[in-house]
Backbone:
């Protein structure tokens, strides 16, 4: 999941003050009666009414704003409430810029929601103390349908107990304009650095910005978010089971291999493959949708936007950031829903989470233009389905999002350093040396081979 660039550490006293401010957003348990016989109609992946149980109100917090994930969340709530008329789910949209501070403060005062959106990977582990492990609460029949649950367990253990029920599967991915490729005479999507450089030359000659960068679409900082690209650079360098090496230091950020790969990435700007204003552009999404730019690196949260505007003229491609064709793709459950540890309605909350894996739940997610995380799921959006086919038909290895499995301090430093590398403001060796220095100054427990 694309991450906030806000600092991760909070002062407890400040959180307590914040908790008082959010106390009015309590979990809706006042005047509601919990019931021991309310669980669980949806757990096996089906759905049936539990209308004979006492009325219950749950509160759900999200930080989605108005993006597709917010639509999917409301779709799920509407579908669930229709089948479970005794359950009311109050959906509260919280500000994204301090969502996790609010959530943590509400957990301290036990005045927050029953269910909360939670980002996966190291974010889950950072906040796990106020989350409820799901095994034994959400039925196994529902959990086993979901993919990538290991990325939300302690130390990312495939046999561990997940703290999050994924909402969707997400891709960091490339999108390209098929008409631009045709006009430029490009008959095959590039699969290596050299093929990408050659395609850029043809696209420039045809009047296009080959690959557009900017912070439009989702403003996670003043500059473009570099971890989409960095994920594919690392896919080109390391198999998925060696990505932990970046966390524990077995692969230094400034190793010769890393410097060489990021130098080839920086050459995109040097060769005119990108817009010149990569550090300041804010309307990059518009440039792609309007046909000025031929390619963009983005994610599934914008797929529906592209297909709505460009119809069948848009397609997905795996960013070819390698000397040889890449055999992996970022295919990862970036966020989902957790049950807060203090909730007085855990059985009812678990039933809602189980509903996500049901056919009705999958339909609600797909209707919002997202990809259900359920094993074997399909999607009605053809470009999203193309992404799924990269794995199911083309045999590509699913990778996590790099920014979810390296330390937050590295992510924050990289948000400043990596865009400057692409823009030519700092050399790859100097920039990656700064990333390695950031890693070296982490506490020893954050440099071990145990994710935390």
Residues:
């Amino acid at each position: 999941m694309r991450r906030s660039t806000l600092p991760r550490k909070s002062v407890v006293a400040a959180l307590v003050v914040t908790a008082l401010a959010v106390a009015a957003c309590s979990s809706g348990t006042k005047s509601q009666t919990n019931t021991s016989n309310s669980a669980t109609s949806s757990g096996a992946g089906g759905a049936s009414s539990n209308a004979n149980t006492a009325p219950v109100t749950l509160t759900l917090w999200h930080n989605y704003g108005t993006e597709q994930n917010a639509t999917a969340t409301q779709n799920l709530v509407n579908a669930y409430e229709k089948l479970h008329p005794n359950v009311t789910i109050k959906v509260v949209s919280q500000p994204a810029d301090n969502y996790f501070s609010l959530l943590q403060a509400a957990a301290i005062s036990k005045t927050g929601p029953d269910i909360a959106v939670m980002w996966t990977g190291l974010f889950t582990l950072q906040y796990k103390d106020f989350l409820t492990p799901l095994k034994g609460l959400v039925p196994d029949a529902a959990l086993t349908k979901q993919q990538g649950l290991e990325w939300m367990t302690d130390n990312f253990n495939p046999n561990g107990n997940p703290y999050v029920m994924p909402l969707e599967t997400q891709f960091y991915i490339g999108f390209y304009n098929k008409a631009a490729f045709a006009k430029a005479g490009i008959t095959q999507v590039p699969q290596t650095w050299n093929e990408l450089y050659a395609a850029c030359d043809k696209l420039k000659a045809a009047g296009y910005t080959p690959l557009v960068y900017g912070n439009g679409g989702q403003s996670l900082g003043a500059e473009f978010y570099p971890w989409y690209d960095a994920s594919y650079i690392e896919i080109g360098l390391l198999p998925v089971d060696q990505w932990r090496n970046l966390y524990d230091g077995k692969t230094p950020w400034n190793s010769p291999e890393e410097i060489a790969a990021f130098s080839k990435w920086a050459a995109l700007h040097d060769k005119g493959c990108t817009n010149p204003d990569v550090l300041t552009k804010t309307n990059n999404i518009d440039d792609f949708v309007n046909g000025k730019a031929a390619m963009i690196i983005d994610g599934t949260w914008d797929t529906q936007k592209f297909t709505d505007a460009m119809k069948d003229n848009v397609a997905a491609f795996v960013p070819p950031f390698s000397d040889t064709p890449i055999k992996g793709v970022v295919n990862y459950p970036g966020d989902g829903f957790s049950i807060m540890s203090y909730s007085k309605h855990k059985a009812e909350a678990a039933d809602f989470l189980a509903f996500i894996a049901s056919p009705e739940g999958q339909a609600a997610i797909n209707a919002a233009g997202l990809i259900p995380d359920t094993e074997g799921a399909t999607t009605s959006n053809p470009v999203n389905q193309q992404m799924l086919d990269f794995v199911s038909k083309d045999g590509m290895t699913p990778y996590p999002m790099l920014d979810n499995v390296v330390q937050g301090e590295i992510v924050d430093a990289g948000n400043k350093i990596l865009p400057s590398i692409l823009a030519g403001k700092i050399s790859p060796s100097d920039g990656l040396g700064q990333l390695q220095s950031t890693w070296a100054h982490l506490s020893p427990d954050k440099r071990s081979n145990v994710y935390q």
